[in-house]
Amino acid sequence: MIEHVVKTSFKAYPVYIGEGVIGQLPIFIKEKQAGVTKILIITDEIVGGLYLAPILQILSAFPVEVVKVPGGEKAKTFEVYYDCQTAALQYKLDRKSLIVALGGGAVGDLSGFVAATFMRGIPFIQIPTTILAHDSAVGGKVAINHPEGKNMIGSFYQPEAVIYDTNFLKSLPLSERRSGFAEVIKHSLISDVSFYQWLKSNISSLESIREDEMVQFLAKGIEIKSAIVAEDEKENGIRAYLNFGHTLGHAIEAEMGYGKMTHGEAVLIGMLFALQLSKKYAGLEFDIETLTEWVQQLGYQTKMPEGLSDEKLVERMKGDKKSVGQRIRFVLLNEIGSPELYELSDKEILCELNHFK
Ligand SMILES: NC(=O)c1ccc[n+]([C@@H]2O[C@H](COP(=O)([O-])OP(=O)(O)OC[C@H]3O[C@@H](n4cnc5c(N)ncnc54)[C@H](O)[C@@H]3O)[C@@H](O)[C@H]2O)c1
Ligand SMILES: O=C(O)C(=O)C[C@@H](O)[C@H](O)[C@H](O)COP(=O)(O)O
Ligand SMILES: [Zn+2]
């Protein structure tokens, strides 16, 4: 088992990673949440169907209630958020109660936001079940979507612990492995060229990742992310680098309709676009072609999805959280591992989108 500690100015919490670490859950609750009055597990239909029974077994010493929400982006809506709050009230949760998020990033983002706002904030624990959630479960960004934009209604709210049992990843469909691995690639590109090269040399298929390799890259991604979060929890500066690929990625997700393309696949396209911009505006010297061939071999789509209007994408990007006064800011790379924020005009972006086809 790997134990990593995430430190922010007000809080430090453990991330346990490895096969079988779910056993830490009751131990952690007994030790750190003594006197817990109720545990509310929020999970989705698929993950609940697969893993709820063993978790209930593990938690049999505690009073537990469960809310099942729809899978994927359908969970990150006002309606589902409202239903979770209603359930929390009807189950009589109080400030000594605990929310447990069992699922991928969608369940984690929703549950964290429910926890952050129920009675102005009660503790929560993340039990991630996707590769992507090495990113989403760590760092405390919790949110739901608005039709106008991704994660627009949310908070920064750190969990008490992240318990990342890699046994849960074995049932992940290939498309979800692909989605999650895009954020691993992101972590390498923004911070560590040798990690990027290691990934490229060792991961040639997402179907057959060795357990030791999986643990290695998940832990490395978490280490990279938590170092950034430790320095800038609320995104006043360098945390924006974790948004590499997301300016266009989020615009694609919103424009297509949430859930039509997975988050990671949209971010992957966004990263390829940001790399193209980096060559033109940030002096990056990098062989995008070799990266493109590698990710195509892993099954990623590398072109813009058909039928999206460049003008509408630019409008979406103006509303991105990194924008200031409707001026769009991209995370670009001066070198691999060296990100910086750049403001670009609508005209410059439209021109590059045109070349990106
Ligand atoms: N908070 C953050 O810092 C952060 C970071 C990255 C992404 N996100 C958000 O995370 C969300 C995406 O999360 P995600 O990709 O982890 O997935 P998800 O929660 O959207 O789940 C995707 C699908 O996989 C299924 N699934 C989950 N775990 C499974 C398992 N072990 N076996 C079989 N099926 C399983 C789910 O039921 C769902 O159908 C997006 O909304 C994105 O915006 C947040
Ligand atoms: O943790 C962060 O900071 C990130 O930007 C991680 C991203 O991978 C993640 O998708 C995040 O939810 C995007 O944040 P947002 O502020 O653009 O909604
Ligand atoms: Zn992301």
UniProtKB/TrEMBL annotation:
Pathway connected to this protein: Metabolic intermediate biosynthesis; chorismate biosynthesis; chorismate from D-erythrose 4-phosphate and phosphoenolpyruvate: step 2/7
Cofactor names: NAD(+); Co(2+); Zn(2+)
Domain 3-dehydroquinate synthase C-terminal: 180-323
Record: residues binding Zn(2+): E183, H246, H263
Keyword Lipid metabolism: no
Gene Ontology MF annotations: 3-dehydroquinate synthase activity
Compartments where located: Cytoplasm
Gene3D superfamilies (UniProt xref): 3.40.50.1970, Dehydroquinate synthase-like - alpha domain
Reactions catalysed: 7-phospho-2-dehydro-3-deoxy-D-arabino-heptonate = 3-dehydroquinate + phosphate
Cofactor note: Binds 1 divalent metal cation per subunit. Can use either Co(2+) or Zn(2+).
EC top class named in words: lyase
Keyword Chloroplast: no
Pfam families: DHQ_synthase (PF01761), DHQS_C (PF24621)
Domain 3-dehydroquinate synthase N-terminal span(s) in chain numbering: 67-176
InterPro entries tied to this protein: Dehydroquinate_synthase, DHQ_synth_AroB, DHQ_synth_fam, DHQS/DOIS_N, DHQS_C
UniProt-annotated binding residues for NAD(+): G105, A106, V107, G108, D109, T129, T130, K141, K150
Enzyme Commission (EC) number: 4.2.3.4
Protein task: Catalyzes the conversion of 3-deoxy-D-arabino-heptulosonate 7-phosphate (DAHP) to dehydroquinate (DHQ).
Family affiliation: Belongs to the sugar phosphate cyclases superfamily. Dehydroquinate synthase family.
Protein name (record): 3-dehydroquinate synthase
Organism: Niallia oryzisoli
Gene name as annotated: aroB
